[in-house]
Amino acid sequence: MTKKIDEKSKILFLLDEAHSLMREKKYRAASSLLKKAKKITHKNSVVLGSLARCYLQLGRLTQAEEIARQRFAHKKDLPAYIIYTQILLTKGKLAEAEVLARERVQLFGGAAAYGLLGQVLMTEGKLDEAEIASRENIRLSKNTAALGLLAEILRKKKRYRESLEVTEEVTEKNYSIFLCRAYCLMHLRRIEESLKSFQGAEKELNSGKNSQYADSFLRLHAGYIFLYEFSSGINIEKAKIREVARRAAGWLKACNESTIGTFQQSDYRNAMQLIAKNGL
C-alpha cells in the first residue's frame, strides 16, 4: 500500500512539473519528465495524453501517434478523441481522422467537436460539408477559433469577400486570422493591405503567444513570395514588397525540405519556382 502511495505521489509531482514546462513551451524537457512517469505506470491517461501532445509539438509525429493510440486504447474519452484526431490530421491520415471526428460528434457533441470535424473535412477538400460543420460550430459557440475556421473554408472556396467579412467579426486577431486575411486580400489585388496582414501574422508568430508549427511559418514566407508575384503590373511601391520577398526567399532556401508538412509541400514548391523566376 505504501509503495502505491509513493508511486502516485511521484507521478503527480512529475505531471505538475511537466505541465508547468509545457505552459512555458519547453516540450522537450516536459517529455523527459513524462517518460519517467510513464515508466512508473503505463495506464495513466493524463501522462499518455500529455506525452502525445509534447511529441506533437516537437514534430515527432510517429511517437506522438503511438502514444495517442495507447491513450485511446486505454480510455476512449473526450481528450483521447481530441489528441488522437489532431495527430492523425497532422500526419495526413485523413480518412482515419474523419472517422474519429465523426465518432466524437456522435458520442459527445458540442461546438469543439463540430469544429474539429470541420477542420478535418476542410483538409480533405470536402468544403461544402466542412462549411456545414463549421456553421454548426459557430451556432453552438461563436469564438475566434470557430470564426477563423469558417473564414478559412470560405477562402478555400474562393469566396474572398465573405471570408474577410467573417474575419472582421473577430475582436482579437491571431496569426491564422491575419494569414487568412492576407491571402484573401492578395487574391482581391489589394496588395498593400495584404502586405500589412502578412506582417501582422509575422508579428504574432514571432511573439510566441500561441503554439505554432513550422508549417505556419512556411505558409507566411511562401505568402510573401506569392504577394510579390501578384503585385506585378499593379501601380504600388514595389521596393518594400521586394525587400520582404527577398527575406522570405532566404528563409525558404534555408528550409529543410524533409521537415515540411504534407499540406505545405505544394506551397513550398510553387514558392521556390517563383524565387528562381524572379531572381529573389
Topology:
Layout: H1 2-23, H2 27-40, H3 45-58, H4 61-74, H5 78-91, H6 94-108, H7 111-124, H8 127-140, H9 144-156, H10 160-168, H11 175-187, H12 191-207, H13 214-230, H14 238-253, H15 265-278
How does this structure look, described?
- The protein is mainly alpha-helical and 280 residues long.
- Helix 8 (127-140) packs antiparallel against helix 9 and helix 14 (238-253) crosses helix 15.
- It starts with a helix and ends with a helix.
- 79% of the residues lie in helices and 0% in strands.
- The protein has three domains: 1-75, Serine Threonine Protein Phosphatase 5, Tetratricopeptide repeat; 92-172, Alpha Horseshoe (Serine Threonine Protein Phosphatase 5, Tetratricopeptide repeat); 177-280, no CATH class.
- It contains 15 helices and no strands.
- The protein is globular and about 70 Å long.
- It has helices at residues 2-23, 27-40, 45-58, 61-74, 78-91, 94-108, 111-124, 127-140, 144-156, 160-168, 175-187, 191-207, 214-230, 238-253, 265-278.
Q: How many individual domains? A: 3
Instruction: Give the C-alpha Rg.
Output: 21 Å
Tell me the quaternary state.
Answer: single chain
Largest sheet: none
Task: Give a brief outline of the structure.
With 280 residues, the chain is an all-alpha fold.
How would you describe this structure in keywords?
single chain; 280 residues; mainly alpha; Serine Threonine Protein Phosphatase 5, Tetratricopeptide repeat
